[in-house]
Amino acid sequence: MTTGPAIDPAGLRVPANATVHRYVPHNELVPECSAVVGHGGHATAFRDSPTGCHCS
């Protein structure tokens, strides 16, 4: 999960099977993913679609 610049991930309680970052470059992460869950922003959909990853 990413929080953006407004929230410090260190202040969140996160389950052991999850990670939280302020920012993750789509181009590095998405090719390794089988699915992406986003908030409906067009940037995520446009960046992820060429990789064959399914966006929700």
Automatic annotation (TrEMBL):
Recorded superkingdom: Bacteria
Protein name stated in the entry: Uncharacterized protein
Organism encoding this protein: Rhodococcus sacchari
